[in-house]
């Protein structure tokens, strides 16, 4: 078996994983990516020198070509298209190719039903900081995935960030925190930038302050053993300005609002799973 990794459907998420893996030292010669449009294939091939990118509008069997002979294929299309893609590549898969899905809400059972009997499958839930090697990626092995195959995929995904193994029942909850979570952090930065403007700062300055502050705080959180509550307390002088801000957030119910948002994300995943039935 080769070392080849195929990224089928290389949009935001699969490109982020691909970027993280290359940054961590994966040989670009071992990477093949498929997309729909030729323009996007050229963009990827230009950005990541040495990979192969094949556009469906030029080579309609691009996904099968890429899957054939690959050790691992990573399905990165939208949930609604993923079982069709699995069926499409089935004739090109060797029995020991590990099929990895990054799709939210698509169950291992749904994936396995669309693939040849006995095909090893791993359901994952990554996030976009994978691009910098700072993502979180969950793995949940399917029925036919051996411990060695799971280890191989964990070792590969480590290039994208922290790998955690979770039972499939926990993926929707995990997705509501780490899968969607980067968007929550960016949303906070947007809201802070707007707040600064309302306080009279220039738009550009306010955006710079918000970006650098959220990024700097993120780096502190990334230090080993970091505790968000302790870090927050270190900024909060007794009877000072931060204390007043946090008290206002608490009074206005921000923690409950965040919990409600996360629950809505997890509920939506369950709803999509049912719809895809
Ligand atoms: N964007 C994110 O932060 C995260 C996304 N995901 C999952 O990743 C998957 C993809 O999401 P995004 O990357 O955001 O979407 P996207 O739309 O950016 O990427 C999908 C890509 O697949 C291509 N594509 C569609 N059908 C194709 C086919 N038959 N053959 C080849 N290429 C095809 C599209 O042209 C597009 O470039 C979804 O299933 C989503 O649930 C999971 C975690 C986080
Ligand atoms: O919004 C979504 O459905 C995907 C899954 C987690 C992040 N993005």
Automatic annotation (TrEMBL):
<comment type="pathway">
    <text>Amino-acid biosynthesis; L-proline biosynthesis; L-proline from L-glutamate 5-semialdehyde: step 1/1.</text>
</comment>
<dbReference type="Pfam" id="PF03807">
    <property type="entry name" value="F420_oxidored"/>
</dbReference>
<keyword id="KW-0028">Amino-acid biosynthesis</keyword>
<dbReference type="Pfam" id="PF14748">
    <property type="entry name" value="P5CR_dimer"/>
</dbReference>
<keyword id="KW-0641">Proline biosynthesis</keyword>
<comment type="function">
    <text>Catalyzes the reduction of 1-pyrroline-5-carboxylate (PCA) to L-proline.</text>
</comment>
<dbReference type="InterPro" id="IPR053790">
    <property type="entry name" value="P5CR-like_CS"/>
</dbReference>
<keyword id="KW-0963">Cytoplasm</keyword>
<keyword id="KW-0521">NADP</keyword>
<dbReference type="InterPro" id="IPR008927">
    <property type="entry name" value="6-PGluconate_DH-like_C_sf"/>
</dbReference>
<dbReference type="InterPro" id="IPR029036">
    <property type="entry name" value="P5CR_dimer"/>
</dbReference>
<dbReference type="GO" id="GO:0004735">
    <property type="term" value="F:pyrroline-5-carboxylate reductase activity"/>
</dbReference>
<comment type="similarity">
    <text>Belongs to the pyrroline-5-carboxylate reductase family.</text>
</comment>
<feature type="domain" description="Pyrroline-5-carboxylate reductase catalytic N-terminal">
    <location>
        <begin position="4"/>
        <end position="104"/>
    </location>
</feature>
<dbReference type="InterPro" id="IPR036291">
    <property type="entry name" value="NAD(P)-bd_dom_sf"/>
</dbReference>
<protein>
    <recommendedName>
        <fullName>Pyrroline-5-carboxylate reductase</fullName>
        <ecNumber>1.5.1.2</ecNumber>
    </recommendedName>
</protein>
<dbReference type="InterPro" id="IPR000304">
    <property type="entry name" value="Pyrroline-COOH_reductase"/>
</dbReference>
<feature type="domain" description="Pyrroline-5-carboxylate reductase dimerisation">
    <location>
        <begin position="168"/>
        <end position="271"/>
    </location>
</feature>
<keyword id="KW-0560">Oxidoreductase</keyword>
<dbReference type="InterPro" id="IPR028939">
    <property type="entry name" value="P5C_Rdtase_cat_N"/>
</dbReference>
């Amino acid at each position: 078996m080769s070392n080849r990794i195929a990224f089928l459907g290389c949009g935001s998420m699969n490109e982020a994983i691909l970027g993280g893996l290359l940054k961590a030292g994966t040989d670009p010669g071992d990477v093949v990516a498929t997309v729909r449009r030729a323009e996007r294939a050229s963009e990827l091939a230009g950005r990541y020198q040495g990979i192969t990118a094949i556009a469906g509008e030029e080579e309609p069997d691009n996904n099968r070509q890429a899957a054939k002979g690959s050790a691992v294929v990573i399905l990165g299309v939208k949930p609604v298209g993923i079982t069709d893609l699995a069926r499409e590549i089935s004739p090109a898969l060797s029995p020991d190719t590990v099929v990895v899905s990054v799709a939210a809400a698509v169950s291992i059972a749904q994936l396995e039903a669309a693939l040849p009997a006995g095909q090893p499958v791993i359901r994952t839930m990554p996030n976009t900081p994978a691009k910098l090697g700072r993502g979180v990626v969950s793995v949940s092995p399917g029925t036919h995935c051996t411990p060695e195959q799971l280890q191989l995929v964990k070792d590969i995904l480590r290039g994208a960030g922290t790998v955690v193994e979770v039972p499939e029942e926990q993926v929707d909850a995990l997705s509501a925190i780490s899968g969607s979570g980067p968007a929550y952090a960016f949303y906070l930065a947007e809201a802070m930038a707007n707040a600064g403007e309302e306080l009279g700062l220039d738009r550009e300055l306010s955006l710079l302050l918000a970006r650098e502050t959220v990024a700097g705080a993120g780096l502190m959180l990334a230090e080993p053993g970091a505790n968000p509550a302790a870090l927050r307390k270190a900024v909060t002088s007794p009877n000072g300005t931060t204390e007043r801000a946090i008290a206002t957030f608490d009074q206005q119910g921000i923690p409950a609002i965040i919990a409600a948002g996360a629950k809505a994300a997890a509920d939506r995943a369950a709803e999509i799973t049912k719809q895809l039935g």
